[in-house]
Amino acid sequence: MPPELVKTLVLGPFAVLVLVAALKDLAALLAGVPLAGIAAGLAVGVGVFALAAGMFALGWLGGGDAKLMAAAALWVGLRGLAPFAVYTAISGGVLAMALVALRSHWLRPIAVAGPAWARRLATPGEAAPYGVAIAVGALTAFALHPLA
């Protein structure tokens, strides 16, 4: 695949998502979401960022995971925070079990024969792609958001 096409495929969705996020912020104001609700969402995001930064400092999360968790918390707000945490934890547990199975002596040879990303996932001691669990938790909890 040509490098320019790869760049477009990677950066294009990012640009669209940033624009959608900006429009949703405007939509919150236009929809009459009280400033107190917006401030509460911001406080939740800052609190989750502080917690996630601590988890990053302890080596429990990657830096990208900490930022994703904080950004998702901004969107789910106070009402969606508990479901976000629960669904993220459940998704993380499923992910962990899948990685244990993938890294077992039965499945690892199959993954090692595959592409580089599969080999990396199958390598014991490699980091788990926890952003997947965070995304599942955020999307599930976002259904409780006033704009959803």
Précis, in short:
Helices cover 77% and strands 0% of the residues. It has six helices and no strands. Helix 2 (35-57) packs across helix 3 (63-102) and helix 3 (63-102) packs across helix 6.
Binned strand content: under 5%
Tell the overall outline: globular
Average pLDDT for all residues: 87
Total helix count? Answer: 6
Structural class: mainly alpha
The tally of strands reads: 0
Uncertain ranges:
none
- Rg on CA atoms, Å: 18 Å
Major sheet summary line: none
Helix content: over 70%
Describe the structure.
The chain is mainly α and 148 residues long. The protein contains six helices and no strands. It has helices at 3-30, 35-57, 63-102, 108-112, 116-122, 131-141. α2 packs across α3 and α3 packs across α6. The model has no long low-confidence stretch (mean pLDDT 87).
Topology readout:
Elements: H1 3-30, H2 35-57, H3 63-102, H4 108-112, H5 116-122, H6 131-141
Keywords:
mainly alpha; single chain; 148 residues
